[in-house]
Amino acid sequence: MTRPFILGLTGSIGMGKSTTAAMFARRGIPIHDADAAVRRLYAAGGAGARLIADLFPDAIAEDGSVDRACLRDHVLGRPDSLARLEAAIHPLVRAEEQRFLDEHADASLVILDIPLLFETGGEARCDAVLVVTADPDVQRQRVLARPGMSEAAFAAILAKQMPDADKRARADFLIDTGLGLAGAENQVDALIERLVGAGQA
């Protein structure tokens, strides 16, 4: 029985991962967005929101959705609380991922877009990993241009993520978005050709 080639897609903040994912999507490659799956689970009436209501009742907003800022306060620096949250939510996220894979079982290539792929051991569920990267100066300019972003917030986010150099060292494929959109598009096309056109998937 054949199955899709599963490509994990990851990259640190400001590297252009979402832009790169959109390029694959425009070329008809099915993509599972782990962050979007969590947002659905945390929405009012979502399975995740119901579980969190039991664990941390005050982390539920008036509309029934999860107040993610409040939830972060509950688990930040509290390993026991974080472990309880992950034990509740991770099976739901994995179930969403499996539904996606079942739905696209006939595809040649599918992508699992997981921001903290290496940090959570997600690479074990992939046939190969693509890391989206850029020069550190480009990354910094992009992130600090975001509304409400500060040097301190940027540093805090980086502290939670595996360094870009380590991700690049563990990657099977790289796409450098610092070369401009056209350059990234060309790299995406070349990778799809390698994985699908050459019959490897």
SSE topology sketch:
Blueprint: E1 5-10, H1 17-26, E2 31-33, H2 34-42, H3 47-55, H4 68-75, H5 79-103, E3 109-113, E4 128-133, H6 136-144, H7 151-160, H8 164-170, E5 173-176, H9 181-197
Parallel strand pairs: 1-3, 1-4, 2-3, 4-5
Structure class: alpha/beta
Number of DSSP-assigned strands: 5
Mean pLDDT comes to 91
Percentage of residues in helical conformation: 40-55%
**Major sheet description:** 5 strands, parallel
Residue fraction in strands: 5-15%
What is the global morphology?
globular
Describe the structure.
By secondary structure, the chain is α/β, with parallel strands linked by helices. It contains 9 helices and 5 strands. It has helices at residues 17-26, 34-42, 47-55, 68-75, 79-103, 136-144, 151-160, 164-170, 181-197, and strands at 5-10, 31-33, 109-113, 128-133, 173-176. The chain has a 5-stranded parallel sheet with strand order 2-3-1-4-5, with helices on both faces. Helix 2 packs across helix 3 (47-55), helix 2 packs across helix 5 and helix 3 runs antiparallel to helix 5 (79-103). The longest helix is centred in the middle third of the chain and has 25 residues, at 79-103. The mean pLDDT is 91.
Short description:
This protein has 201 residues and is an alpha/beta fold.
